[in-house]
Description:
- The chain is of the alpha+beta class.
- It folds into three domains: 56 residues, Uridine Diphospho-n-acetylenolpyruvylglucosamine Reductase, domain 2, CATH 3.30.43; 143 residues, Uridine Diphospho-n-acetylenolpyruvylglucosamine Reductase, domain 3 (2-Layer Sandwich); 116 residues, Alpha-Beta Complex (Uridine Diphospho-n-acetylenolpyruvylglucosamine Reductase, domain 1).
- It has six helices and 20 strands.
- A five-stranded antiparallel β-sheet has the order 5-6-11-9-10. Strands 12-18-17-16 form a four-stranded antiparallel β-sheet. It has a three-stranded parallel β-sheet with strand order 1-4-2, covered by helices on one side.
- Strand 9 and strand 10 form a beta hairpin.
- The longest helix has 19 residues.
- The site of flavin-adenine dinucleotide (FAD) has 32 residues, from strand 2, strand 7, strand 11 and strand 12.
Amino acid sequence: MPSLQNYHSFHLQAEAQQLETFHDVPSALSLCRQYPQHYLLGEGSNTVFIENYDGAVLLNRITGIEVSNSDTAVSLRVGAGENWHNLVTTALAQGWHGMENLALIPGAVGASPIQNIGAYGLEVADFITSVEMVELATGLTQVLNNAECQFGYRDSIFKQALLGKVIITHVNFCLPKTYSLNTRYGELKALENPTAQSIYNEVIRVRRAKLPDPDVAGNAGSFFKNPVISATAFSKLQARYPEVPHYPVADDNVKIPAAWLIDQAGYKGKQVGKVKCHITQPLVLTNLGQATGSDVVLLAREIMDTVNTRFNVALEPEVRLVGKEGLVNL
Length: 330
Ligand SMILES: Cc1cc2nc3c(=O)[nH]c(=O)nc-3n(C[C@H](O)[C@H](O)[C@H](O)COP(=O)(O)OP(=O)(O)OC[C@H]3O[C@@H](n4cnc5c(N)ncnc54)[C@H](O)[C@@H]3O)c2cc1C
């Protein structure tokens, strides 16, 4: 059975029944139908195979970038198998600015709308005009506009109503020729006379300094989402922990950094088996080598339980855990 170890960034040892690659829409559809039990995979940086998968893993490698120019904007139609960071780098080199805050996020373009990737104050939803997909049940191509994608914080219709029902084949982006740089977040605030290039360089520098390289210590980026709680729940939390960092979000809700909760709960640097809560970024769990799926599940559950007991806040995984039969909830 083919090994999946090099096909997901956590690099756990796991196998699939089959491993197949598709480069175009007809072969994507035909493979999905040939293997009813399948898991679509881009670059595996949001997926952790915690045990052998009893089905076919189908690698999306639909490539190509089509460009059209107007007086006001550049439009890009990008194959779902293109690498995200290469797209950001290519765009910057061509003078198509805006996406530089999202540099160095691992993964394929086709996965970017699924959890609405974001960093440094921007989300991919800010640039997407539409997403092209094929419905597995009918084989029909559909195009969803930005509003129809129902983008939210690390969320979209592709993680909800359309989960497991479609193959994303292309993503359409619009980069306005007049744009404003976004330096409102973190280290970017300190940039003097920022340019798109200096933002790109700084984002890469900071990410390399803070986040473990998956090729050195397997990981899937943020393991948990930052919890969003009601204003009432937040008042209670703040009464007990006045120092709790927080950000107001839509509908009077409040976002709390999961890293702070995990750190306060005493998990920074903590290890279960061969999985460790990263020392400089406790939101990231890392594979110290030879880690197992049970190590991952044990540590993740322990963190969730402790944070819940101590702060009455429920953590939700950002990563997709895949077991024998498919997606697994913690
Ligand atoms: C070191 C590191 C840092 C990270 N930093 C960030 C960050 O700053 N911000 C952020 O938002 N994310 C971040 N991530 C998470 C990750 O980069 C994103 O979730 C990315 O979009 C995953 O892309 P992928 O191709 O690797 O997805 P995969 O793991 O291959 O797939 C993700 C999900 O999408 C489904 N899928 C994939 N392709 C298709 C398709 N064509 N059609 C239908 N379904 C599909 C899969 O079945 C799976 O459920 C980070 C990850 C790592 C390892």
